[in-house]
Specification:
Helix content is about 85%, strand content about 0%. The chain has helices at about 5-30, 30-55, 60-90.
């Protein structure tokens, strides 16, 4: 996509918010109904922070950073569907 950043930069940028948000989402997930309602805005916020990390860490313009985020979502969805398909056939 034409980014000039290094892997270490993007890894550090993503680690800054991914680990704390994962802990918060796990803690909120323990609460039956309210937890699932509160984790949805955190997931959207995490997606926004991922966009910013990709844009800053890889020195990409905003449109290309959005394409990378969409590509990540599509790959994650495809891998999840594939794993669930394999598990369901066992």
């Amino acid at each position: 996509m034409g980014g000039t950043g290094r892997f270490g930069e993007i890894a550090y940028d993503l680690a800054l918010f991914t680990a704390p948000l994962a802990v918060i989402q796990t803690a909120l997930g323990i609460i039956p109904v309210v937890g699932s309602l509160l984790t949805m805005p955190l997931s959207i916020y995490s997606l926004y922070l991922t966009y910013l990390a990709i844009q800053c860490g890889m020195n990409l313009p905003s449109s290309r950073a959005i394409y990378v985020c969409i590509l990540l979502l599509v790959l994650t969805f495809g891998l999840t569907c594939g794993v669930l398909t394999l598990i369901s056939r066992m």
